[in-house]
Amino acid sequence: MxxxxxxxxxxxxxxxxxxNRRWAKERNLPTFEGHQKGYEKMKSAPEWxxxxxxxxxxxxxxxxxxxxxxxxxxxxxMKLLERAVTSNLLEQAKKDGYRVLISGxxxxxxxxxxxxxxxxxxxxxxxxxxxxxxxxxxxxxxxxVDAVRKMIKNKVELEQVHEGMIKKYLYNSDLSDPDIIVRxxxxxxxxxxxxxxxVYSELFFxxxxxxxxxxLDAEVILKEYADxxxxxxx
Length: 234
Hints:
Number of domains: 1
Helix content: 40-55%
Order of helices and strands: EHHEHEHEHHEEH
CATH topology: Undecaprenyl pyrophosphate synthetase
Radius of gyration: 18 Å
Strand order of the largest sheet: 3-4-2-1-5-6
Structural class: alpha/beta
CATH class: Alpha Beta
Shape: globular
Low-confidence stretches: none
CATH architecture: 3-Layer(aba) Sandwich
Strand content: 5-15%
CATH superfamily: Decaprenyl diphosphate synthase-like
């Protein structure tokens, strides 16, 4: 296992969990099977990263564009997410001692999900082993739009608008920017994931589908990051 003292460990890792549907299709399985397998990996991933020294793990679980998928698939995804925040993930977070945050328009989610999102954040607030930031009903442009709306509502003056002020109004603005953003499945784009925060993030694209993601891949990501030299435009 990589040791935080020996290599440069990123404080914040972001992952676009992509490829569930293609994983299922290539195995002649229903799409739901791919999402279920991906969900299992989502539950395991926090421990894989936190045990190696990562402080924040942001996972892109459901985008504002995903509502355009077939209703049956969306309903299934909502059930999986509800199971996560009400039982499985909540229990795991309490057991392993990490905090859960939800970034996105979670108040627009169906049924009891908005309340359950608030509950899992409250229930894990005191945990300090790491932070799992779940981007749910999230879009990078939507985040900026929501930030501007809040600024207008709070009557922020023109002279007060600067990068620090905008960041203050983003979702969970206390989180540091991601040091590295990973996308599985071979696709090489961010699809609106943490657009404001990703300005100097290292990007790493993996060919394997998210359901095939394993603990060893966490080490691959950390090794990739350690081998890079960040210049921040210098």
